[in-house]
Amino acid sequence: AEELFNQQDYIGAKKQLEQAKEITVHRREEHLTEIATSAIESTRNLIQEAATRGADVGPAMTALQEAQSALVNNDFDNVQGLVKNAAETANAALQDSKKKKQIKQKAVLTESMSEVQEILEMAKEEGGEKTEEIQGKLDQVNQILAQDFIPEEEMELATSLIASAREESIRSRDTSQYKFAMESMESSIMLINSVKGFGIDVNEAEEVIRQWTDAINKGDYSKNDDFAIKIQDIINRLRKPFQSRMVSNSLTSLKAEIAEARNNGLNTVNVEGILTEAEGAFNNGDIDNAELLTKQSEKALMSIRDKWRSGKVKDDFDRAQK
Fold first, then answer.
1. pLDDT (tens digit, 9 = 90+) per residue, 67-105?
2. How far apart are CA 220 and CA 218, in angstroms?
3. 3-class SS at 128?
4. What confidence score (pLDDT) does residue 135 get?
5. Among 42, 69, 189, 300, which one is least packed by beta carbons within 10 Å?
6. Cα–Cα–Cα angle for 97, 193, 216, rounded to 5 degrees
7. Looking at residue 138, what is its pLDDT?
8. How far is 91 from 84, CA to CA, in rounded Å?
9. Considering only CA atoms, which of 138, 111, 115, 119 is closest in space to residue 196?
10. Closest by CA position to 161, among listed 176, 173, 182, 144
11. Phi and psi of 243, rounded to 5°?
């Protein structure tokens, strides 16, 4: 353009400048699209992590969908702000979830430690070995739980110390029947705690634990299997509604994402077919199969989006070459 301008070919110079501008705008859009796509994927991963930790990711998903719509419409002035908002919302939900989880973890550990302390006291009364060493571990756990916020590695240490103290307290009582009964009950307690952390009311199962504990303390080991089976049945029954809510939320979220993809011109027939099967399984009470089909539908939708993005970039490149 400069050469043509110097030659006083102003029309030619203008055409060259327009081409330069078009190329520059296109490359800028490609660059911004790449940055925004990367940010969206990073934020999606953060949201998924928050969701797996039980956080409320609804607002973050809404914000992310707005960012995706802005990207589709090449609204680069707003897309970065929307992605940032989605990430901040997801991170806030994740941190809140971590705090709530730690409160529950501390409560569970405190209760577990109290149970271990009772076992240890019985071992002391029976003249068990290494009771002072075991007590030292529980004292260390007390110091950890006294903190306002417990680092994850210390929480793991407290869990390990309690498990170790429980095992050593049981061994200290040195009775084969008692040891078998307590190990069996420990497995049931772990099963209860595995769902208790999700906020599920496990009072019914804990009442069975109390009955089991009373029987063991009286030297009655005849109902160990009955107690264990009863707790297993209770937990299986209690877990279903929680699993059902999670699948229901996933189905609702997936419907919205499929609708958005369809509105953007994507072929979602296959994904909708899988989703229909998932809804059918859910409505028929087959929650496990519904969860599996929902995950398959999510994966299929992600694949369609990836192919669509790849095709769009190729079309843009082809237009640029022309």
1. 777 667 776 667 777 777 777 777 777 777 777 777 888
2. 6
3. coil
4. 92
5. 42
6. 160
7. 92
8. 10
9. 111
10. 144
11. -60, -40
